[in-house]
Amino acid sequence: MTLDEGDTPLVQAPHVSELTGADVWLKLEGANPTGSFKDRGMTVAVSAAVSEAAEAVVCASTGNTAASAAAYAARAGLRGAVIVPEGKIATGKLAQALMHGARVVALRGSFDEALALVRELARRHRIALVNSVNDFRIEGQKTGAFEVCDQLGDPPDVLCVPVGNAGNVTAWWRGFQEYDTAPRLHGYQAAGAAPLVRGAPVEAPETVASAIRIGNPARWEDAMNAFTASRGEVRTVSDAEILDAYTLLGAREGVFCEPASAAAVAGLLKYGAEGRVVCVLTGHGLKDPQTAMNRASSVLPCEPDLDSVEAAVLG
Ligand code: F0G
């Protein structure tokens, strides 16, 4: 089951490079078929679900996993069900899951509660659980690491990633290890949803970056092992810092990513790094039009005559 995922652009970030003194590159995972890195793992997980003759695929999600699972399930002719925290996922992601015909369940609870429930559900039925607790997901997502090394010609010195459920950082580390290399992994959590930094689960996580609003990551130990083994770090960025990086990427680098993705760059700007640095921009900005519109300047109303247009364009 494939939508030809992966092979995403790796572009230089001249402005962020100038600000940090590092050689900064952006891995545009929003260029995947459903607009996020999740497709790399979902192609493998849904293919496995088909080979295991699963009746359906299910996941808990802050939105992107739901959109990706729904797309690959649709392609496989499998029933898809996605459990999302009610009112807490970005509009684009919801539209995707619905358009792909998944059953979208709005849970009156958090992502962490949703994940605990689907794990139990998958134990009781012939349903494939396609969250990143599923190892096929990690196997697919690790290909990001292969690609970055191939695209650069050498491994980067540092990889900056946003961290939510911690599957992605686990996958990147596995990929680098299989390529016999060990860049420092710099993980960033939103300050209001930073269990790995605090060293304890967060009961009521809160952040503008809804994709990483997670209080009890499933891949906790794997992620901490990756940070330690790579001599990396996991730190927090505030919502204001995330939104500043989000705006800067759009306005200065020409790259529109979602707020969670901007956490990688926010962390780099805040804490710095040396050498060749790759920031993983995990999802496309169009996923979350509401945050963009809240943040952006307003449109200019204009009368349909040349003077008015001149004033509007050049004034
Ligand atoms: N960035 C984006 C855009 C995400 O959607 C996610 C996770 C992450 C970063 C963090 O990755 O969880 O592997 O540490 N989204 C999941 C979802 C939780 O349900 O779509 P992680």
Brief summary of the model shown:
The chain has 315 residues and is α/β, with parallel strands linked by helices. It is 46% helix and 17% strand.
Fold and architecture overview:
Helix 3 links the parallel strand 3 (56-60) and strand 4 (79-85). It contains 14 helices and 10 strands. The strands form 2 sheets. A 6-stranded mixed β-sheet has the order 1-2-10-7-8-9, sandwiched between helices. Strands 5-4-3-6 form a 4-stranded parallel β-sheet, with helices on both faces. The chain folds into 2 domains: 10-36 and 137-295, Rossmann fold, CATH 3.40.50.1100; 38-135, Rossmann fold (3-Layer(aba) Sandwich), CATH 3.40.50. The protein is an alpha/beta fold and 315 residues long. It is globular. Bound molecules: ligand F0G. Ligand F0G binds at residues 36, 61-65, 132, 162-168, 211-212, 258, 260-261, 282-283.
Number of domains: 2
Q: At the first level of CATH, what is the class of the largest domain?
A: Alpha Beta
Order of helices and strands: EHEHEHEHEHEHHEHEHHEHHEHH
Say which molecules are bound, naming each kind only once.
ligand F0G
Largest sheet, if any? 6 strands, mixed
Helix content: 40-55%
Beta-strand residue fraction: 15-25%
Helix and strand content put the structural class at alpha/beta
Count of DSSP strands: 10
- Rounded to an integer in angstroms, the radius of gyration calculated over CA atoms is 19 Å
Q: Count the DSSP helices.
A: 14
- The end-to-end distance, rounded to whole angstroms, is 52 Å
Uncertain spans: none
Q: Biggest sheet, strands in spatial order? A: 1-2-10-7-8-9
Can you give the mean pLDDT?
A: 98
